[in-house]
Amino acid sequence: MRTQGFESEAQLVKAIAASVTLARRRDYRLELEVDAGVGIADIVLTKRAPRSTEGLRALSCVSPRIAALLSPALSESINSRQELAACLGSSITAAQRVITQMSAAGLMNKTRQSLTLTAVRTLPFEHLIAVEAKISDWQHVLVQAYRNLQFADESWVVLDHMYIRPALAQLERFKVAGVGLASVDRNRGLFVHLGPTSSGPVSLGKRWQAQAVLAARTMTRRNPSVAG
After folding, report:
1. Over its length of 228 residues, how does the chain's per-residue pLDDT go in tens digits?
2. Which of 6, 8, 57, 210 has the maximum number of C-beta atoms within 10 A of its C-beta?
3. What is the value of pTM for the model shown?
4. What's the burial of 212, exposed, middle or buried (CB within 10 Å: 0-12/13-18/19+)?
5. What is the DSSP code string of 141-210?
6. Taking the C-alpha atoms of 73, 78, 79 and 81 in order, what is their torsion angle to the nearest 10 degrees?
7. β pairing state of 189-194 and 125-134
8. What is the SS3 assignment for 42?
C-alpha cells in the first residue's frame, strides 16, 4: 500500500502525540502549544519531579516572566526594593507591583527595610522534552527547535516521513544544533533518525518561565474554577 503524507501540521501533531504516548512511559504528560518566551513549542513532554507540590503551587501563582525570581540563586540575592528593581531592570514603581503580586501569593515577606523572597527548592518538572512538528520545511523548524533548548532538557524536530530525505542529507546541521530528528509515517508510525546531542536548558529565565506556564496549566486542570 502506498504511503500518503499528512494533509496538515495539525494531523502530524496528532500522530506525533499518539506515537509518543505509546513510546514514552506513563510518567510523562503531553502538553500542546507551550509558550516559554522563545516561540510556541508544538509539543512539550513533562515529567513531574517527586515531592514538588509546593513548587508547583508557588510557580502557578506568579507571572511566568518573573518566575525566575523564586530560584534560589536570585531569591537569596534580593533583599531590598532597589535590588529587586536592578534584577528586573525596571523602576522602583514596577518593582513595587511585583512585590504586591508576590506578597499576595504568600511568596514574599517585607518590612520597611528589607524583602525576603520564598525560594522554590524543587522545580515541579524534572524533565522537559520539546517537539517541533513540520511537514517538510526542516530548515525553518530546526531554528525553533534550537531555541527550545533555552527551556527544555531535550529538543526534537519531527517531520512527515514522506519528506524526510532532505533533512537526512543534513544530519550534521542537527548534530551541531544538538537537536534530535524523527519522522512519522501514517501507516508505520515513528522513526528516530538522530537523538539529541545537546542538553538544556541553557537559560535560567526561560527554564523557570516554562515551569511556571506548565505549573499554571496543571493547577488549572486540578481546579478548573480558577481558570479565567
Report:
1. 456 789 899 999 999 888 877 665 668 899 999 999 999 999 999 999 999 999 999 999 999 999 999 999 999 999 999 999 999 999 999 999 999 989 988 999 888 778 999 999 999 999 999 999 999 999 999 999 999 999 999 999 999 999 999 999 999 999 999 999 999 998 888 999 999 988 889 999 999 999 999 999 999 987 765 544
2. 210
3. 0.89
4. buried
5. HHHHHHHGGGT-SEEEEEEEGGG-HHHHTTHHHHHHHT-EEEEEETTTEEEEEE---------HHHHHHH
6. -170
7. unpaired
8. strand
Query: What type of residue sits at position 95?
Result: A
Cell numbers for 84: 529587586
Spatial distance between the Cα atoms of 159 and 216, rounded to a whole number of angstroms: 30
Q: How far is CA 216 from the centre of its chain?
A: 12
Which grid coordinates belong to 17? 502525540
Cell (9 digits) for 38: 522563545
Long-range Cβ contact pairs of 47-52 (< 8 A, separation 24 or more): 47/125, 47/126, 47/127, 47/128, 48/124, 48/125, 48/126, 49/122, 49/123, 49/124, 49/125, 49/126, 50/126, 51/122, 52/122, 52/123, 52/124, 52/125, 52/126
Which cell goes with 8? 496538515
Residues 145 and 157: beta-carbon distance below 8 Å: yes
* Rounded-to-integer distance, Cα 107 and Cα 201, Å: 25
Q: Give the angle subtended at the CA of 210 by the CAs of 129 and 30, to the nearest 5°.
A: 40
